[in-house]
Amino acid sequence: MAGLRFLTAGESHGQCLTAIVEGIPAGLCVDIEKINCDLARRQQGYGRGGRMKIETDRAEVLSGIRFGETMGDPVTLRIANRDWQNWTDRMSVFGPEFGDKVTAVRPGHADLTGVLKYDRDDARDILERASARETAARVAAGGLCKEFLAACGMEVVSHVVKIGGITVDEARINRETIGSGASELNCYDAVAEEAMKERIREAMSEGDTLGGTFEVIVRGAPLGLGSHIQWDRRLDGRLAGAMMSIQAVKGVEIGAGFQCSELPGSQIHDEMFLSGAEHVYRKTNRAGGLEGGMSNGEEIVVRACMKPIPTLMKPLHSVDIADGREVLACKERSDVCAVAAASVVGEAMTAIVLAEAVLDKFGGDAMCDLLSALESYRARVQA
Length: 383
Ligand code: EPS
Known about the structure:
- By secondary structure, this protein is of the alpha+beta class.
- It has one domain (5-381): Chorismate synthase, AroC fold.
- The chain is 31% helix and 20% strand.
- It has helices spanning 32-43, 51-54, 111-118, 124-130, 135-151, 190-205, 235-244, 265-268, 339-362, 367-381, and strands spanning 5-9, 16-22, 59-63, 65-66, 69-70, 75-80, 155-163, 166-167, 212-219, 249-254, 272-275, 279-282, 290-291, 294-295, 300-306, 317-319, 326-328.
- Helix 1 crosses helix 5 and helix 3 crosses helix 4 (124-130).
- The chain is globular.
- Ligand EPS binds next to helix 5.
């Protein structure tokens, strides 16, 4: 039985999104405003569309927390869709069919494969759930996991490193400020951020969309989360899978990632040094904090690349599933660039995987048992 599991439910223009998180031990103090803060961060970002002006995402707790503390029960989190008010007829649960069908499927979206696989004649039945709106529920679940990790001395932050081909200059970034929330694009190189905004403005005026890359960093993880023993216990594999599950993500790297295929071993592996008699340290972190499928005590660094959103205001060539004609793809209100939002979702998915790994290693129905196991382990391995 998995130590932690979560499910989400809900359509983009349905009544609400719901997340159920099971496995958080009893006795965790939860600050709902921290979860709401992440939900607000997910809504931000230069280049987001009109929907974000309608919504003010906030999580409501329906189960699992009493007097501000978890009880060990599944925690149910609900986020209302304000836009539902404008969709009650088109998204009615039992009412008669209403509204135009979406039939001019979008290249790059779930539309075509979804309607064929699920035998639907309206791509709305697919796009409502495929929409990245679902990530609000993941961010709420991840926010809860972040609070659990914080109680264990861990922090998960992120930053955007590339948008539309414009890349940050690592030399201009003070890594300690990452996570301070001081940037509209969640980018900590102010010069690159301005150029990214300009690129987003250009794409918007051209009716186009832009992708990019974000990096998630875990601080304070003890060494030994995950295991080399079996493929499905490797933490790097679990992180990559979770990251790849985010809508529009097409590539994931850990540490030096794809650079590993270019440089010799002498320039990739992080050499080890001793401070004092026993403490091993490294001067570099090209492994991204993961060796042998286990955390090694350094910062865990995962990058994910997001493709440009497939809804273009200057639509691409496509087909109409209603009559089999070649047409231009449909236009739905959408974002020009959502990489900053995706970086917050990346934090959430990373937090969920890390929380699961902590629970696998230290067990725990009750926070006090888990924290004492963690403390004695940290003392033994000095991490
Ligand atoms: C999103 C809400 C959606 C989209 C976007 C993400 O709202 P709407 O469809 O009402 O404009 O803005 O979804 C997509 C990018 C997509 O491809 O579906 C959100 O809450 O993040």
